[in-house]
Every structure is written in C-alpha cells, then in structure tokens.
Amino acid sequence: MSERRVIWRFDLDYVPWDTADAADFGHGEPAMVLRLLTAARERGLKFQFFASTRVLRAFPSLGESVLNEGHALDWLCKHPTRHALAVDLFARIGHRFRGIAVVRPTEVDLIAASEFVVSHWPVTGHAPVIPQRLPELRDFIRGGQSLADWLAAASSELQSESEVVVIAARPQALSHVDPQLLVFAELFATSRQPAFASECLTLGDISSPA
User: Rounded distance, CA 62 to CA 133, Å?
Assistant: First the structure.
C-alpha cells in the first residue's frame, strides 16, 4: 500500500455573539488557534484551516496569522449564497481560497469553480470531492458522545486502509474539551508512524495534479 496522508482540518467559526456555541464550548477559540499554530511549528506540521465569512469579518487578523505561519486557509461554506462576500473578505487579507468545506448536504453551482470540496455530507458538483468519514469533534460531542469516544474513532480511522484521512475539529470545541492538546498530541504521534507520508500536506496539495 502506498504512503497514506493525514489532513489536520480546523474550522474557524467562532464569534462572541454566537450564544449557542458559547454556552456549550466557551470563548477560547482565538487562544486555541495560537496554541495550534505553536504545536504545528514545534512538530513541523502543516494544517488545513477553513474560515467562515463571519470570522473573517470579526477577526481578519486570525486568518492572517494562519497564512503567515504557512498553513492553508480556505472557505468554510455555511451559506453558499455568500460566495462573493467570501471572495472579497479573503481578498482583504491578500488571499484567494482554493477550496471549500461544506457543513450540510449541498448542491450548488459555485462548487464547480472550486479546486476541491471536503465534506462529511453528500455533495453534488464538478470539483473533486474529498470525503471526510470521521465527524468533526464538535458534532461528535453534540451527538452525545465523549472526547474519549472521538479519540477512539479517530485512532481507528488512522489505522484504516484509507489513503487520505481527514481529522477535523473546531478550535472552539478543542479549547473546551482538550485545552492542553493532550488528545491531539496522541493523534499527532500516531500520524508519525512509517505507514504515513512524512510530508504533511493540505487538501489543496492532494487535489492538485501531479
């Protein structure tokens, strides 16, 4: 079997006025993003970030920090009709997104203009669709399961035969259930096993022609 790829996906969607998410997970996302960037720097990892339009409006410096550290930043598409707004907000931080992540079953024409789409849900479009078999951490917990359950599922996914494994979490949820990144440290260590490619790529990297 060829070397397998692990994609570390982090979705930026926190804003202080989102009372539902704040009630469940608190306000720790900005600090957790900085902790993730430090962890990536120390371990030589490259992360795949997605940002929603509301985050880019509220915290444009967060997107700039991600880009300045050499990570990938693409659009977290919660509302397909905001495509033009997303293009504009990314342009304000000097960046053009290549792909999108969708958060629900989606069928939209704008997918055809994207280099890739990643989704845990069914998607109809013309761009390459990269499946994400493991639910994102926040959705897992909201489904009534624990951090330990998610770690077991993520570890199982890493041991699967999949050539591309996407491990996804929202920093806001991480700040609440794994503030010191102890669980993610276990997963990072697993991804350094010989079965995995030594080079840490992003979704844009693996979707590009060789």
Answer: 28
> How far is it, in rounded angstroms, from Cα 52 to Cα 50?
7
Closest CA to 185 of 52, 18, 35, 2: 35
Q: How far apart are CA 66 and CA 56, in angstroms?
A: 12
For residue 13, give the amino acid letter: D
186 vs 50, 64, 181, 192, CA distance in Å? 23, 28, 9, 10
Question: pTM here?
Answer: 0.87
Pair 174, 184: CB distance under 8 Å: yes
- Beta-strand pair 48-51/72-77: parallel
Backbone angles phi, psi at 137, to 5 degrees: -55, -45
- Give the Cα separation of 39 and 192 in Å (integer): 14
By CB atoms closer than 10 A (0-12, 13-18, 19+), residue 201 is: middle
Per-residue tokens: 182: 């102890």
Mean pLDDT taken over the chain: 84
Query: Strand, coil or helix: what is 155?
Result: helix
Higher-pLDDT residue of 109 and 38 is 38
CB 126 within 8 Å of CB 96: no
Which tens digit of pLDDT belongs to each residue from 36-65? 999 999 988 899 999 999 999 999 999 999
DSSP conformation class of 101: E
